[in-house]
Amino acid sequence: MYLIELYKSVxxxxxxxxxxxxxxxxxGCNLRCSWCDSEYTxxxxxxxxxxxxxxxxxxxxxxxxxxxxxxxxxLQERELVPLMERLLQRGYELMLETSGERPLAAVPRAVHKIxxxxxxxxxxxASFHLPNLAALTSADExxxxxxxxxDYEFARDFLRAHSLETLAGNVxxxxxxxxxxxxxxxxxxxxxxxxxxxxxxxxxxxxxxxxLQIHKFVWAPATKGV
Length: 226
Ligand code: SF4
Prior knowledge:
Elements: E1 2-10, E2 20-26, E3 46-47, H1 50-59, E4 65-69, H2 77-89, E5 93-98, E6 112-116, E7 141-146, H3 149-161, E8 171-175, H4 194-204, E9 209-210, H5 215-218
Bound molecules: iron/sulfur cluster.
């Protein structure tokens, strides 16, 4: 497997936000989102066997929540899925952060999938693999990263068209961050003002959860490895 970094911190997003978590950031991505904050994952990375990754995770005990992220982790599905199966057998709780473009049917059902649906403002708005909706469980989360009103309307209409209300509070509406944030831990760095987003969500009565990337408010937004 090709990794960029492996570290422990607190989970910054999703319904797991704030919990201690091991992050395994895999190299490579086949998308190019306009606001991507992980471009350093596009190339390079260091090679480790899945057994070496498993041992590195173990060294970060007692944390038992592990997120596979990237880049796009499912580009390394052939080694990733068996690793996830082994970790589940050993009692780890797993999360998978994915762009939603790769098929997810092979991901073990016990893994909490955080699945993006890319909005038009990302420049990758047509990338979602629609059959992935059938692979979702009530423990999964669907995330829309929003940079403007057009993105919001896209996400609202997608949510309604595909009955994502059944995922209850597991639909995340997350304001995109600028690629050139100030060092301030401030909502001023969001491309879409969270207050504006809340107003729209309440006006439309959406069954969605406002999701802020809390690591960008705990540390300076450009900090890596946190
Ligand atoms: S899918 Fe994720 S890593 Fe890939 S370009 Fe988009 S934001 Fe960046």
